[in-house]
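Q: Start with the shorter request: fold the first protein.
A: Done. Sequence, then structure:
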Amino acid sequence: GTITMGYGVIESGEDEAALVDCGALTSPPRSPIGERLSYLYNKLSEIISRYQPDAVAVEQPFVGKNVRSALAIGRAQAVAMLAAANIGIPTYEYTPAQIKQRITNRRLFSL
């Protein structure tokens, strides 16, 4: 969402993947939405600049009936995509199951 956003940096080979870094970015929760999005954008831009990935993967969220949650998740996704696009890095969207399967090389796995 727009208050806390998780990230992971993974080095991926043909048959294996290794976690390089991960964490959570927490914007000031009582700040206006524009300030929270700017905070997330700046922090993601720093991470992307530090690790210089070949690509950025964004998780396609499962969204139920809560429209406010869906809007917040969409805003956070847009920030991640923009941070990557502004320095020419392609962005790909994956479902949570696709990401877990790729990382663990298993169909069903819970992190």
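Q: Next, the second protein, separately.
A: Sequence, then structure:
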Amino acid sequence: MKVFAERHHLNFPYMWDSTQDVTRSFGVISPPTAFSIDSNEIIRYQGQIDEHTQTASAQGVDYLGNAIILKTVGTWTFVKSGKT
């Protein structure tokens, strides 16, 4: 994960949960699962990152990206869990 984060210039905190202890404590039943947590430590999004496959031409919904976009326009109305 460290190499991936460096290669893709991730500028946000991430965590690798090799034992799945933290994952289970959040009630996740279908990893991988993304969380978006606001500055008040409230989970605003929990679910899939997207529906894309590994291919560059894949079409699909960008669940986490949509949640972040809505946050930047001032609303957290997209709190739907993305198919987890």
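Q: Describe the second briefly.
A: DSSP finds three helices and two strands in the chain. The CA atoms of residues 70 and 77 lie 7 Å apart.
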